[in-house]
Structure formats: C-alpha cells, structure tokens
Amino acid sequence: MNYAVVHTILSKKLDGCLSAHGISFSEFMILFQLSQTEGKMMRRIDLAEQIGLSASGVTRIVSPMEKIGLVRKEANKRDARVSLVKLSAAGQRIFDESSVSVNVAAEHVLAALSERRTHEMLKSLVAIGGGSVAE
User: Fold this and answer.
1) In this structure, what is the dihedral angle of CA atoms 13, 28, 59, 131, given to the nearest 10 degrees?
2) What percent of the chain is helix, strand and coil (3-state, nearest 5)?
3) pTM to 2 decimals?
4) Are 61 and 50 within 8 A, CB to CB?
5) Confidence at 79, pLDDT banded by 50, 70, 90
6) Could you tell me the fold of the domain covering 2-128?
7) How is the chain split into domains, by residue range?
8) Distance CA 68, CA 46 (A)
9) What are the DSSP calls for 35-89, one per residue?
C-alpha cells in the first residue's frame, strides 16, 4: 500500500510539472521510451511492455499524441500488420524541454534522501522492475 500511495503522489507531482509542457506523465514516459531507442520508434506492444500498460492503453494515449504531432505512425517494412510509433521532431523538442522539469522535480523529491539511500532505492527499483528501470 505504501508503494501505491507514493506512486500516486509522485505521479501527481510529475503531472503537475509536465502540464506546463502540455503533456501528462504517461505521455512523457512514451516520449522517453521512444527517445531511448535506435530510430526513435517502437512497436506499440513493445512500448506498452516498457511502460507497464496494455497495448490498448498505449493506443489510447498515443492517438491524441499523433493528432498534436508528438509522434507519428510508421508502417513496418517487414510486417504490414504491425504499426510502429515514431517520435517526431516536435515530440523530441517537447521531451527535451520537459526532461528538465522532470529532473528538477526528481531532485526536489530525492533531496530528502542521502546519496547512499537514493542509490539503494534505485537498485531496488531495478530489481523489482526486472531491469526495465534505468539506473
């Protein structure tokens, strides 16, 4: 239960700082994942797995992002049945700008912890997340 409460509090704080950039924390997570991949694109199912949502959940978030030009749909050259989500130049710009806000918010939240405790917490998150959380 403590994890759920902390997750909710942190999500609200991050949503608040990201609202100045016109995106939510879920949208930021999609931009983050796309920015980390070669070619800045991923299959929707892979994106869903990386951010912990269902494929339909990702589709519900990505559709409005496509409409405002943060991402675009790309055809898969190997398999026409699979659509890819690609980070647009506008999406990259919003990600770069919003990353500054997220880093400031994270530093503010983590200021209460020593460097050792922060490192231990990050190691625990990596262990719990199966390696999907970057150290």
Assistant:
1) -90
2) 65, 10, 25
3) 0.85
4) no
5) confident
6) Arc Repressor Mutant, subunit A (1.10.10)
7) 2-128
8) 22
9) HTSGGGEEEHHHHHHHHT--HHHHHHHHHHHHHTTSEEEEE-SS-TT-EEEEE-H
CA distances to 41, 47, 106 from 98, rounded to whole Å, are: 19, 19, 12
**Which pairing describes strands 83-87 and 71-75: parallel, antiparallel, or unpaired?**
antiparallel
Whose tokens are 């942190």? That residue is 10
Q: What is the pLDDT of residues 20-68, one digit of tens each?
A: 999 999 999 999 999 999 999 999 999 999 888 898 999 999 999 999 9
Q: How far is CA 35 from CA 2, 4, 23, 119, in A?
A: 31, 27, 16, 24
